[in-house]
Amino acid sequence: MRDDVVIIGGGLAGSEAAWQAANHGAKVTLYEMRPKEATPAHKTGFLAELVCSNSLGSGDILNAPGILKEEMRRLNSLIIRVADDVRVPAGSALAVDRDQFAQGVTRALEGHPNIRIIREEITEIPTDCVCIVATGPLTSDALAKAIQNLTHSKHLYFFDAISPIIDTDSIDMAKVFRASRYDKGGADYLNCPMDEAAYSTFYDAMLKAEKVQPKEFEKTPYFEGCIPIEVMAERGRQTMLFGPLKPVGLEDPKTGARPHAVVQLRAENKHGSCYNMVGFQTKLTYPEQRRVFRMIPGLEQAEFLRYGSLHRNTFVNSPQLLRDTLQLKVRGTAFFAGQLVGVEGYTESAAMGGLAGTNAARGLAGLPLLTPPPTTAHGSLINYITTTDPRHFQPINTNFGLFPPLPVTIKDKDQKRKRIGQRALEDLEAWKQRSGLS
């Protein structure tokens, strides 16, 4: 076995993984194919180049992404340190000068005595070392094939179909009813019933709503299993009624009759703190999702913890393939990180890279591997990506719906979120001390 940690991919996850592994004493070899090999999205050869927005999301501790960023600061995150150094005015969001950001991360990694950077493409996952695969949504076809071969699985996706997730507390329970179709499997779904007039209004709004235009490299044909809900609507006024809005097998207890249409919500976690809109993968813009989906009975005040989307991506079915240490179940020396594990967003990707880097270094040194408490933002993400039902697994951003409920009920939303954040940081510090990370 080699005596270094090999990291494939120099994006945010790979960069953070390299930094954390090196700071935990490991020798690191980081492979990045740019600028030798280009991608459809990147413009430079710098590490951690931001290819979309220059915002890393909210830094407010009353928001789940803000909690994650503060946890990363306390774990000596390179990505957050550089972002703080080159931030630009953006209200409560942590936005950065994208060129200075990428250059700052690159300089830090190039200057670390434990890190060696090699600019070449890797097409196979090495077997003679501890390695971290962090190649992101634009993983090359050759490496994607290697991942499929390693996992002996078809659970590698190249088109990411995501349905919105809604905070349970924002659903009007007086307008929905619990049931499963034909009463099979228990009352597992929340059902939003529509009469013909409500459906007609909703349908017309779907047709007129503004849509996100895909980038050239995202123009991938739709799979019939993940057609955007608005594309389904474009196929005819009745099409959705034979798809995700079909009312068959459901009876509204208030009327004793079958509704004209039904939108089903499926619990996203075991706590029931958030629900997924079944079959509502969409290309509608975020403002249009808020406007149109709030026309659905029971969702008039819906708070969206994650919006729907449909775009080019690559991720593994983590609940089936990964341990909660981000190791592959079939090969303990192989770790995955970043968007490949099923997280969305710059910060989330970097956070998973940091954990993978820490565990890779510890594994190489013969130390126990670590999993943060589920009450932390890091731990809640790990818990989601490794325990979700693999049949319904979809990538996700950090959000309050992933955190376990507080032991006491707090009705005020801001106070509730403040306490969740306080608990997360308290538990992170206690975990760091137990794990020898302080």
What's a quick, concise take on this entry?
The chain has 438 residues and is of the alpha/beta class. The protein has helices at residues 12-23, 64-74, 78-85, 98-110, 141-151, 196-208, 229-234, 286-293, 318-321, 346-364, 377-387, 413-435; strands at 4-8, 27-31, 55-58, 87-88, 93-96, 115-118, 130-133, 156-162, 165-167, 177-179, 189-194, 261-267, 274-277, 304-306, 309-316, 334-336. The protein folds into 2 domains: 4-160 and 311-435, FAD/NAD(P)-binding domain (3-Layer(bba) Sandwich); 165-307, Elongation Factor Tu (Ef-tu), domain 3.
Topology:
Layout: E1 4-8, H1 12-23, E2 27-31, E3 55-58, H2 64-74, H3 78-85, E4 87-88, E5 93-96, H4 98-110, E6 115-118, E7 130-133, H5 141-151, E8 156-162, E9 165-167, E10 177-179, E11 189-194, H6 196-208, H7 229-234, E12 261-267, E13 274-277, H8 286-293, E14 304-306, E15 309-316, H9 318-321, E16 334-336, H10 346-364, H11 377-387, H12 413-435
Parallel strand pairs: 1-2, 1-7, 2-6, 7-16
Antiparallel strand pairs: 3-5, 4-5, 8-15, 9-13, 9-14, 10-11, 11-12, 12-13
Helix pairs in contact: 1-10, 2-10, 2-12, 3-4
The count of strands amounts to: 16
Number of helices: 12
Strand-residue proportion: 15-25%
What would the CATH topology of the largest domain be?
A: FAD/NAD(P)-binding domain
Low-confidence segments, given as residue ranges, are none
Just name the CATH architecture of the largest domain. 3-Layer(bba) Sandwich
Estimated structural class = alpha/beta
Overall CATH class of the largest domain: Alpha Beta
What does this structure look like?
The protein has 438 residues and is of the alpha/beta class. It has 2 domains: 4-160 and 311-435, FAD/NAD(P)-binding domain, CATH 3.50.50; 165-307, Elongation Factor Tu (Ef-tu), domain 3, CATH 2.40.30. The protein is 32% helix and 16% strand. The chain is built from 12 helices and 16 strands. Strands 10-11-12-13-9-14 form a 6-stranded antiparallel sheet. A 5-stranded parallel sheet has the order 6-2-1-7-16, with helices on one face. β1 (4-8), α1 and β2 form a beta-alpha-beta unit. α2 (64-74) runs parallel beside α10 (346-364), α2 (64-74) packs parallel to α12 (413-435) and α3 packs across α4. The longest helix has 23 residues, at 413-435. The radius of gyration is 22 Å and the shape is globular. The two termini are 30 Å apart. 48% of the residues are buried. The mean pLDDT is 90.
